[in-house]
Amino acid sequence: MIRSVVRGVGTALPRRVMKNADFEGVVETSDEWIVQRTGIRERHIASDDETTASLGEAAARAALANAGMDVAEIDLIVLATSTPNNTFPATAVEIQNRLGMTHGFAFDLQAVCSGFVYAITTADLYIRGGLAKRALVIGSETFSRILDWTDRTTCVLFGDGAGAVILEAQTGEGTTADRGILATSLRSDGSHKEKLYVDGGPSTTGTVGHLRMEGREVFKHAVSMITDVVEDALRIGGISAGQLDWFVPHQANKRIIDASARKLGIDPAKVVVTVDRHGNTSAASVPLALAEAVGDGRIKAGDMVLLEAMGGGFTWGAVLLRW
Ligand code: UT7
Q: Are strands 246-249 and 304-311 parallel, antiparallel or unpaired?
């Protein structure tokens, strides 16, 4: 059977780093509050010349270099983002153009913080359906542009960045010994819309709007939603949590990451954490964390890896793959 195997990873982070202390004087907050409640110490913030497209392009180029591939070999780009450069065309198409690619097809996918998990699941289906052989799956965000910088309950939490992976169709045996994506599980429930949303849009206000979040309400649902979907992916894959080599969660809050790993019985030493340096980068957070753990040699060929995310919508999902 066809499996979607990861061939390369890449990232891009804006030049400017904003530390917690830099918020003091901007809003009524403190480094101590932010670290205690979230685990975040700093985040990257895009400058005027850095956009979702430019960061996505840079992450894609890094992933191509990591895979030793030329863009001519890619036939699909799926970009997960909630902060596109324009309302349309899709920022994926802009990245396609920036990469000098005029063949294949590219589109955006919007599932907020779960965007990358949705995008890699979608690309896997295109690959297994025979519509693509090699896909660039990118999560790229510039949430700094939709934050209300006077709202301390949200502006300290998010950061900008991009991560990319390249998936390639390879033949597997249909067992859990195969490399590649082994199981995925996606969920959404729009009845939670008001807990995390943007108060503007092309069809309502005609403006971009600002992010609004009832953080405590999101927190209340996060751990049970994450663990449900992780357990579902593990069940479909026929793997127990104890057999995982690496857990790569969405990086929103260290307390949510710790509580989810604890509930699932995953050893903290197997949990990849970047929220301290990136903040919540929405659809970019999982590929940024994944690429860091690959780059420093933690994730190696053959390792069993579990990705998960939860965010606005609500949307949530998990992906089980052998590296
Ligand atoms: O990626 C999408 C998914 N999003 C998430 O997963 C976010 C989920 N939520 C969270 O991570 C947490 O709920 C937050 C980090 C947003 C907030 O932490 P919390 O422990 O739930 O705090 P809280 O909202 O209950 O607020 C506690 C207090 C409040 O003051 P009072 O009402 O107790 O007087 C807030 O006004 O902390 C206050 N507060 C702040 N204080 C200093 C809120 N934001 C800040 C701030 N600095 N930046």
A: parallel
Query: What band does 24 get if pLDDT is binned at 50, 70 and 90?
Result: confident
Residue 124 is predicted with a pLDDT of 98
Any atom of ligand 1 within 6 Å of the Cβ of 287: no
Residue 39: Cβ within 10 Å count: 19
116 pLDDT tier (thresholds 50, 70, 90): very high
Cα 215–92–272 angle (5° rounding)?
Answer: 45
pLDDT of residue 25: 87
- Terminus-to-terminus CA distance in the chain, angstroms? 17
For residue 150, how many other CB atoms are within 10 A of its CB? 10
218 lines ligand 1 (CB under 6 A): yes
Label the pairing between strands 160-171 and 134-142.
antiparallel
Q: Which residues make Cβ contacts (< 8 Å) with residue 170, sequence separation at least 6?
A: 2, 3, 4, 5, 179, 180
Query: Which entry of 192, 210, 250, 278 is annotated as an active-site residue?
Result: 250
Which amino acid residue places its CA nearest to atom 26 of ligand 1? 216
Site of tokens 């357990």: 231
Percent of the chain with pLDDT strictly greater than 70: 100
Q: Which domains does the chain possess? A: 2-171 (3.40.47.10), 180-322 (3.40.47.10)
Q: Is 152 in the pocket of ligand 1 (CB under 6 A)?
A: yes
CB crowding 127-142: b at 16 or more within 10 Å, else e = bbeeebbbbbbbbbbb
Give catalytic status of residue 250 as yes or no. yes
Distance 37 CA to ligand 1 centre (A): 7
